[in-house]
């Protein structure tokens, strides 16, 4: 219990730092540039690079990205991330990463409880809204509505897997 509270506090502090980027600064950066500028998203950046998606996510968009934190990637079963980053597993990595992307700019106010949103990968993410916050396919949104020049980023605390890969 104490460890969980400490983790939640630390995660909250990281999120607060992420949110301190002024809206004007954030809107002048694309989604990839925002992620590169945030140390807590460095694993996501490495995965996007390995998946060959930098150019796409730097493009015009607009895109909505549910961005898992480094801690989210660290929580995957041992060896999973390393396996996904291997060139021979690029298709699987791309499927997982594109499951975190919804076409268009979807702000938190646009979401509704029970909503399904079609991802670039082709399957839907599930939206759950309650007094405890917003969840995307079971992952908690820990920072919402971070504007970018080509869309919006919502930081989440888990890597979400497409239903076909569970």
TrEMBL record:
<dbReference type="InterPro" id="IPR050904">
    <property type="entry name" value="Adhesion/Biosynth-related"/>
</dbReference>
<dbReference type="Pfam" id="PF02469">
    <property type="entry name" value="Fasciclin"/>
</dbReference>
<feature type="signal peptide">
    <location>
        <begin position="1"/>
        <end position="26"/>
    </location>
</feature>
<protein>
    <submittedName>
        <fullName>Fasciclin domain-containing protein</fullName>
    </submittedName>
</protein>
<dbReference type="InterPro" id="IPR036378">
    <property type="entry name" value="FAS1_dom_sf"/>
</dbReference>
<keyword id="KW-0732">Signal</keyword>
<dbReference type="InterPro" id="IPR000782">
    <property type="entry name" value="FAS1_domain"/>
</dbReference>
<feature type="domain" description="FAS1">
    <location>
        <begin position="28"/>
        <end position="160"/>
    </location>
</feature>
């Amino acid at each position: 219990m104490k460890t969980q509270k400490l983790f939640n506090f630390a995660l909250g502090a990281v999120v607060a730092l992420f949110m301190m980027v002024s809206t004007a600064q954030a809107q002048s950066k694309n989604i990839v540039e925002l992620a590169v500028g945030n140390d807590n998203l460095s694993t996501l950046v490495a995965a996007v690079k390995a998946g060959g998606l930098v150019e796409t996510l730097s493009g015009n968009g607009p895109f909505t990205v549910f961005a898992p934190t480094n801690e989210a990637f660290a929580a995957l079963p041992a060896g999973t991330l390393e396996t996904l980053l291997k060139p021979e597993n690029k298709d699987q990595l791309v499927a997982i990463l594109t499951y975190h992307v919804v076409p268009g700019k979807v702000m938190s106010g646009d979401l509704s409880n029970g909503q399904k949103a079609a991802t670039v990968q082709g399957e839907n993410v599930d939206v759950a809204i309650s007094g405890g916050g917003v969840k995307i396919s079971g992952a908690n949104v820990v920072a919402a509505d971070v504007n970018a020049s080509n869309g919006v980023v919502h930081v989440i605390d888990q890597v979400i897997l497409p239903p076909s890969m569970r």
